[in-house]
Amino acid sequence: MSNHILVTLTLAILITSIFTVELRNLRTTVYFYWLHSALLLSIITAYATVMHNPTLYIWSVSVLVTKVIIIPTLMLTFLRRVPAYEFRPVIGFGASLVIIVSIEIVFYKLFHAYAYLLAPTAQAQQEPTRSLLAGAFTVFLLGIYALLTRRDALKTVVGLALMENGVHLVLLALASQLPETTMIGILTDVVVVVGLLLYISTQVYEIFGVTDTARLSELRH
């Protein structure tokens, strides 16, 4: 039963990733990122119980503070000063939705089928680790997709945050039984980077009147 719950949580975090990237209303985007982070928190906490690694609870507390509370709060604060809707992306909504759903389905199945190439260990071939590993790499790819196709400052931050969450899920899948995993997870948190990016993006909006990250290079002039 615990394995079934963990696989379900992995699939849920994949679904929230789609909404986080594709929704044009930025406030709703933040709420889905919050849900995405809450699912990450649930997965880490569940693994702490299943793998009998109490140090993962410390990581859970860190995720709660940084990803569930601080980062969404920073995003919502940023949205008080900028437009509520995403600056036009590189790819239109319909085409982008088809692409991102295709990426999620195809790559999740590929990563799941060839998990032994990603991590040639006995644990990685078993559930729930196999599904978590496939989901982790898929979330990472979705973050890259967001960075490549979104020009809005907040969506760029979301893409970075998804990539980081994907890395954390990989770390959890491969080393959930090691006490060092918690320290690595906490040290690789990007909350400071997110804060700096949002601050710089606020300056861009005040100068140029848009949240287009393509204008960042113009700040040098």
Task: Show the helix and strand layout.
Elements (H helix, E strand, L loop, with lengths): L1 H21 L3 H25 L4 H25 L13 H21 L1 H4 L10 H21 L3 H23 L4 H8 L3 H18 L13
Helix pairs in contact: 1-2, 1-6, 2-3, 2-7, 3-8, 3-9, 4-6, 6-7, 7-9
As a percent range, the share of helical residues equals: over 70%
The coarse silhouette is: globular
- The number of helices is 9
Question: Mean pLDDT score, rounded?
Answer: 86
Could you give the order of the helices and strands? Answer: HHHHHHHHH
Structural class: mainly alpha
Largest sheet: number of strands, sense, barrel closure: none
Radius of gyration: 18 Å
Q: What is the straight-line distance between the termini? A: 59 Å
Q: If you had to describe this structure to a student in words, what would you say it looks like?
A:
With 221 residues, this protein is an all-alpha fold. It contains nine helices and no strands. It has one domain (2-220). Helices cover 75% and strands 0% of the residues.
Summarize the structure.
The protein has 221 residues and is mainly alpha-helical. 75% of the residues lie in helices and 0% in strands.
